[in-house]
Amino acid sequence: MTTPYLARNVESDAVRPAFANWLSSTNDLTSRFVAAERVPGLINIAGGLPAPETFPVEELAALSQAVVREFPRDSLGYGPTDGLVELRDAIASRFSTQSLRLDRSNVLITAGGTQALDLIGKVLLEAGGVVAGEFPMYAGALDAWRPRQPRYHCLRAEAGDLDLSSAKAQFVYAVPNFSNPTGKLVGLAARRALVDAAHRTGVWIVEDDPYGSLYYDETPLPRLIELSADLAPGEAYRGPVVYLGTFSKELVPGLRVAWAIGSPDIIQALTTAKQSAALCSNGMAQRIALAAMRGGLTERMRPKLLGLYRERRDALAAAMDEHLSDWFEWDVPVGGMFIWATARDRSLDTDAVVSAGLKTGVLVAPGRVFDPQGEDRSGLRLNFTLNPPDRLDEAVRRLGAAMRLLYEQVA
Ligand SMILES: Cc1ncc(COP(=O)(O)O)c(C=O)c1O
Fold it and tell me: Structure pTM?
């Protein structure tokens, strides 16, 4: 007989302690990526990884030594849950504008944007609550909120489909700058409409912005939190937008230093949730990030980073024109890290493309994992930042071979 705490393990028929229900519906992308790492010669264009050659190794090595010596308590001891005060001040001043007035009470430091997404789920989402946003949606956000088993409501901001009240959403999740996976940039009018709708209905907007510094061809559009502050200029920020930023794509991801900016009440709530999740952030990483900011390291890195990624985006787009246009269509993004290709044959399940790609030596990300309803499987995400142009060309040639393999099998 089983107690409520025990479940039967089907394979061995032994009685085993059970796991929570939500674990039965996780996405298998990460484990497939890890398994693929072991395939010799495979080219990975599936992930969202920065180019390691952009990492400022010597500068960060020197800063690591310096911060431990100069700030041993901050670096090596427990620190405040909401983050190093000087770093919160520096983030507040970096993001302040004439109408967006920020101080440290508006800023929480997190372990990557990923931790901020997890905390958002804890403080804004009731079990089974509704999250509104554009589909396809960032798989990491879906993963972060899965323990709450939310329902999803699709918004189409560009098409003016922004009915937040009837959606009964607990918050809107938006990645206006070069969404992951689609690379799409949300235009100014749609940004304004979204912010207006949130102010009118009192619904939170979570503005997730890891790619905001990766504009290759255009000048950056205003952030949603800036547009929100414009609606009540001159006051300390109290609006409905929670802005998430990270050093992962503009410096290095390994530091795991990121920030949430919002009204003091939501920062307080997120801090309460963080206390039980992490107690405090990594002090050494925060000190290094602060020193990198103060020394202008990210600004110095930016031109090289943008030049490299622009060239790689163009190389990927050219290779796709040559090898994939019979089967897929896409827009070339003006920033970010991805090109999103949709199959001309909308019934194509791109999981089959991933399997065929593993045979021809390329790994891509299938559309299914970005669709919270599990309905649209015809998309494919291709990353252009990790590999140099010749490898990107070879990867897409292999993907073309995979498509031929797939359609020969079907015929
Ligand atoms: C849309 C989006 N949000 C958040 C993150 C989290 O990044 P990190 O946890 O490294 O800050 C990523 C990473 O790829 C992302 O694509």
Answer: 0.94
